[in-house]
Amino acid sequence: MARFAVRAEIGLDQLVQFWKLAARLKAEPRRGWLKQLRLQRNESVADHSFALSLLCLFEGARRGYNVERLLKLALLHDLEEAITGDLTPQDKESRGENVVKTQKISAREQLLSYFPQENQRAYRDLWSELENKKSKESQLVHELDKLEMVLQANEYARGGIEATKLKEFYESSMAVIKDPKLKRLLDEISSGS
């Protein structure tokens, strides 16, 4: 019985340590908005990840996709930013592709070290699936990630931000979203802004 209690305490300690890292996303601003808009209340990475997860929940169920897998992918998609910070495309370009990739892998491995040993490989595989867009679920997460950005841009526009300041966000999403239904929705949102 004592052996089980010790294992439970170790597991809870790992849970708390993992939470401390992941909770950094609540305070990590989405730097694209920060640099471009200089808002008083800027969306955090956690705000974005929550919104993306809700989009995945809704759209995944509507399409009959594996919703559990979608939610796992959505929750993992920016988790390494708890360590690396949110990087804009300009940040990634100035650091270089190899440096950014190395930093992301290192951050993922650090985060994975808090996962139970028996689950680490499965989550490492999910990150790989997401990065390589190996499944319809990972492709949907990738496209909904961009759609969520446009929905947020639209909210900023409704709050009085000039459309010219939001143009690059709409354009970058248009370049990524290929799904016909999401493309149609993106066109509607973009033309309404």
Can you tell me about this structure?
There is one protein chain. With 193 residues, this protein is mainly α. It has a single domain, classed as Hypothetical protein af1432, CATH 1.10.3210.10. The chain has twelve helices and no strands. Helix 10 packs parallel to helix 12. The protein is globular, with a radius of gyration of 18 Å. The N terminus is likely disordered.
Any idea what the CATH superfamily is called?
A: Hypothetical protein af1432
* Helical coverage, percent range: over 70%
The CATH topology assignment is: Hypothetical protein af1432
Identify the quaternary structure here. single chain
* Uncertain residue segments: 1-8
Please state the structural category: mainly alpha
- Give the biggest beta sheet: none
How big a fraction of the residues is strand?
A: under 5%
Whole-angstrom Rg: 18 Å
Helix/strand order = HHHHHHHHHHHH
Mean of all residue-level pLDDT scores:
90
Task: Please give the number of β-strands.
Answer: 0
> Which architecture does the CATH hierarchy give at level 2?
Orthogonal Bundle
Number of structural domains = 1
